[in-house]
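Our example pasted here:


***
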Amino acid sequence: MAEDLLHHWERKSAEHQKQYSQFLKRADKNKVLKQLPALHEEAFEKIDCLQCANCCKNYSPRFKTPDIKRISKHLRMKESDFIATYLYLDKEGDYVSKTKPCPFLGNDHYCRIYDVRPSDCERFPYTDEDVILKRPAITIKNSSFCPITYFVLEKLMDQAK
């Protein structure tokens, strides 16, 4: 079943964007939040992020102040040098990576700063927390490049039938 669901997931996700939007608007918040832990775990059992890394290849997390302090310390850099080397302020006023893919993504899809990575990276793809409902635009965008987000949304919609 999961293999069928994941077969051509990118195309199916593109076709289901409007359905995702409608579902997230009318979803029973409490019911969805109860379903998320099991669906999140099932998705991570079936999908290996190291085979994909689309998030690290195409998007940047926000680097918040605690992230910048932690990562620059880990890299033995001054915070100002870390920012100058790797980050810029986007139009929302958030620090994000200057480059794509992420400068810390290795060719093997492993993160060179995994133990001190930004909190956005640690939490991604937010399929085990209420962000999935509170920020539907992000959830829908994530479903277009993250097979785990796609998988969880499809399962949620299927269980709502």
